[in-house]
Structures are given as C-alpha cells and as structure tokens.
Amino acid sequence: MKPFEIVDHTADISIKAYGKSEKELFENAARGMFNIAADLEGITTSTELNVKVSALDKEELLVEWLDELLYNFYTKHIIFCEFNIVELTDKSLSAKIKGRFIGENKNRLKSEIKAATRHGLNIVKKDGIYEVQIVFDV
Amino acid sequence: MGGAWQGPLERIDDYRWMIPKSFMNGMNVPGIIYADDILIKSIKNDNAPQQVANAACLPGVVKNSLAMPDIHWGYGLPIGGVIATDIEENGVITPGGVGYDINCGVRLIRSNLTEKEVRAKLDVLVTTLFHTIPAGVGSKSDIKVSDRDERRIMTTGASWGVENGFGVKEDLDHTEENGCMDGADPDKVSERAYERGVRQSGTLGSGNHFLEIQVVDEIYDEPAANLFDLSLGSVTVMIHTGSRGFGHQICDDYSKGMVRCLSKYNISVPDRQLACAPVKSPEGRDYIAAMKCAANYAWNNRQCLMHMVRTVFEKVFGSSQKNLGLTLIWDVAHNIAKFERYKIDEKDKMLCIHRKGATRAFGPGNPAIPHEYREYGQPVIIPGDMGRNSYILLGTKKAEEETFASTCHGAGRCLSRKEAMRRHDRNTLLKELGAKGIKVMAVGKETLAEEAPYAYKNVNEVVNVVDKAGISKKVCRMKPIGVIKG
Q: How far apart, in whole angstroms, are the C-alpha atoms of residue B135 and residue A74?
C-alpha cells in the first residue's frame, strides 16, 4: 500500500491517500499535503506541537485537520513531516505533529497550498484499505 | 472526480452550449458554456461541465449557471463560473463560488517607455524587480503594518496604500470599486486570518500569480488604445495576485461554517464545497462582511506592489514615475461576489453575482465606470500564460444582457501541474522562453514547469470567443518580455 499518490487535477493539486486504519489514512493525507508544500527528503525534526480538531463528521474532520496543519505551517513557520494521531473519533482528533522551522529550509518550499477543499471528498474502504481523494487549492 | 464529460451539451449558436435543466435532478436553471468548436473539445475532456450543473442547483439561482471559455475543473464552482442568485428569493451566497483567493485580480500599468528602451536594461530591470518584490510560498513584506492599520486596510482597501505613500489618488479612480467595497467589517474576520495576513501586504505569492513586463504587439481598436495612451511597442506592466493568506483563511473559516448552514436552512447541494447560506441570513451577512475585508486587502496588496514596481522603474531608468508615465490603466477583481441590479423577467432585481475566475465587463454608459472611460465601456484585463499574450478588452451592453456583465479571466489551464512537469524541466523551459526574448525569474523550485505555457489553453482562442460572442471587445494585445513568478 502506497501512503499517498499525487493525482492529476487541471486547476489545482489532488492526492489520493490510503491507510490500513482511519488513523493511518489521516496521517498519510497530512504527509501527502506536506509533500506538495515542501521537499521533505532527508528532513529531520526539531520541534513538535499537539493539535486538537473537532468537526461535524469524518470528512469535515479530515478537512479541518489538514487546514489546522496549514494554519500552523503558515503562522508558526514550521514544515511538518511527522504526524501521529493519538486519538480519533468520528468528530474529533488529537495528534502530535513534528517538524522543522522554515528558516534555513526555505529552499525546500515548493507550492503554496491555500487550503484543503471539500470538493468530492468521500472516505471509502476498499478491500480493507481506507482511501480518500482530496483537492487542494494552490 | 475528474474524467471526461459524458453529459449533454446542446449547441445554442457558434459560441454557446447548453446543459439542459433535465440533465440532473436539482438543477434550478440550465447551464451555459461559452466556447467555440475547438475549445469545447478541451472543456469536454475535463469534468468542469459537471460543476456548471452542480452550481445550477444553488437556491435562488436565476437565468443560467454560466461558464466562460477559460472554464476548467476547480472545486465548488468551476474556474470560469458565474452564478447569480436573487437575494429576495432566498438566494444564497457560497464561499465556494468566490474561491479561496478572494479578489484575486489583475492590474495593468502603462508607460512612456518603448520596447527598445526596456530591452536595453531588461536584465537589470527583471533582476531588480525579482529582488524587490517579495514572492514565493508564504512570502513576507517589508511594509510594516500595525494592528490598527490592518483594520484600516480591511475597511478602506487601496486608499490605505495611497494615504501611506504607496501611490497617488488617481490610482483609485482606475480600480474596480475604487479599490474598496463598502460594508467590510473587521470584527467578522477571525484571529487566524489576521495572523495569516500579517506582513503580506505587498507580496506576490506563488502558483499562477506573476508580475510581467509586456509590449503591445497588436491593436484592434485604435480609438480605445488611444484612450489608454497605448500604441504598438508601448511597454506595460501587469500584476496578478490576490488577498494572500488573509483571504485563504477567511474562505476556509466560512466554508466550514456554511457546511453547518446546510441543515439549518434545509439546503441540499451536490458538492459540500458549494455549502452556502441565504444572503440575508446572519451567516450570509457575516461572510459578505468578511469577504469584503479580504477584497479590500487584495486591492491594497496590488496597490503596494504597483508602488514597488514604480520605484524600481524610477531607479533603473533614472527618471521620475511621472516622466515615465507609469499610470494605472485599470485593476479588475476576478474572484469575487458583488451585488448588482439586473432585469429578470422584466423585473428589476438585486442579485448576488459570484464571479469565480470571471471578470466584470460593464458596457458603455454604466455609471460605475469612471467618466473618462464611460462612453467606451469598462476596461477588462486578461492575463495569459508567460509565453503567449495578454489582452485589454472593453465590457459591452451584450454582456450586461447575457452574462450578468461577465467575461473570461485568463487562459485557463488545460494540463494538470503534474502533467506539465512531465513535459519539460525548469532549465529547458527557461531556454525556450529565453529564445523567444522572454526573461523569466522564479522563486519556487517547481512553479516554472507547472506554469509552462503549454499547461494553459491558448489565450488568443479564449479571447476570440468572448470577442465574437460579443461579451467584451478586443482593444489590444501584449506579449511578455520579462516575468517574475513566485
């Protein structure tokens, strides 16, 4: 199972994320998103953060989770690369995320993601694997 | 998601295609796409017509769900989509019909310089602009703005820039809405949006945003070109950017809130990205007040960027901006919702017009156009890709009758970023553009290949459709000679 893959989308960027569990699906979606935002090859972590998110349902929760990460990326200037979902329910999650300050890693930055969108968002389970396609506005 | 369009597209005339209301349950009006026989093929390859049909399901929508010839697949509304809702008939407003980059737009500056004069200093000019204009992911500006001033920017827009030395008051006369929408309320903006907007006034950003030095290479309407003081070989500067992280966060905040409104107002939409609320509901009103803050922020952003451009030109050419004739021709918003009056079934109605990747195109005589341009129509600025052309057009009466005074906004993508990057690498592309006499500098590692000319439809074809369909009229065409990308 691939953690995620980039999918063609005319205007924006889209990924398909996979996971053996919903927790893993959420973690891999975050990995996919930061792979679009920055070159994560060989990056090591130097800072960590705990985040909590709540939403109406699981799809909303996924968008909220990704947008929470983007907000922290842009305002705390941290490239996140490790995601550990500690607790996940249908309407809330808590996670520990690790990354590195942009500072001297500025040359790692790739695309400016404005947001994760809700377009066509649908978490499905196929052959025991959870998957979801997410469109990002870039 | 995606895939080719399998649904019906009935030809209305040479430049219009209809998706009948019967195509899908829930459509309140038909969909109409502006395209010729060539463009419709690429439109069919992409699933954007489905998004035109989805938008036709919004409550209160009137006449048609429209798409301009630069339509491509987006989220919520397609890029190039125009939707009008009747605010007296429970018409809704949807953040997905405006987009994350609220008041993304374009401004065009003229100059007295000729191509020859600029080519002689092109390297130093492009390099100085590149080092002066903050661009790229999360770029920050040197313009220091206090908390009080951030609120002033939200309520006064480009006037803030002019009052603080970033331009002259004549600039405001040549900006859509004079660079400020009334009714912006900073209290409707989240703390997070403030945080994301800090030190981004006067930044270009990344993706398809750019700054271009251009040369007029075709004139179609001599009197109108004279009006803008342009002739063959005139040098212009185009700035394409929006409300940066500030607007992105506002769209994000309100999209989330509007998902909750769906059950509250018993609204059903085929795509959650079209989550909406009645214009007259508290949620609708709050979004509008916040959206206007972002729109004003964007106008000030382009105002500050233009000031930096003028300063660089003064330095490089050793002359004042007055002598260089660096006046603003026009500034358009192409991701925005506006309140405008139109006749629907012989009744005068106040409509909420969503233009997502579409440009307002008021015809001659419209009182919103400044008096010096009024008898000609509103200027429409259309950016193309970095290897082809950009255009100035004029709005028409026909646009006011047919498209809620809307026209296209650019070339429109036809290839995904991934596919564009597969075709060519950055260096090959730089060489190709260099051979065409275009000097390009970009901050991002991948931006250049993603934004390659072949990733876009041919802007000349797109503009020909809106011209021949009569929803705007060509004035002149520009070609790029210097490009700065984020």
A: 15
What is the count of structural domains for chain A?
1
Question: Residue A21 sits in which domain range?
Answer: 4-137
Residue B446 distance to chain A (closest CA, Å): 6
Mutate to test the interface with B, among A9, A64, A68, A123 (most CBs of B within 10 A): A9
pLDDT above 70 as % of chain B: 100
- The answer to whether the beta carbons of residues A68 and A39 sit under 8 Å apart is no
d(CA B65, CA B79): 13
Within 8 A by CB and 6+ apart from B113, the residues are B234, B235, B317, B324, B325
CATH number at residue A85: 3.55.10.10
pLDDT for B382 beyond 90: yes
Q: What is the pLDDT of residues A25-72, one digit of tens each?
A: 999 999 999 999 999 999 999 999 999 999 999 999 999 999 999 999
ipTM metric: 0.94
Residue A84 C-alpha, separation from nearest chain B C-alpha, in angstroms:
24
Residue B202: what residue type? Answer: G
Q: Which residue of B has its CA nearest to A64?
A: B256
Domains recognised in chain B with CATH numbers: 10-485 (3.90.1860.10)
Specify the pLDDT at position B13.
Answer: 97
Q: Chains A and B: how many Cβ contacts under 8 Å? A: 124
Q: Are the beta carbons of B118 and B102 closer than 8 angstroms?
A: no
Residue/partner pairs of B316-324 with CB below 8 Å, 24 or more apart: B316/B121, B316/B124, B316/B125, B316/B128, B317/B113, B317/B117, B317/B121, B323/B112, B324/B111, B324/B112, B324/B113
Give A 5-34 residues with CB within 8 A of chain B.
6-14
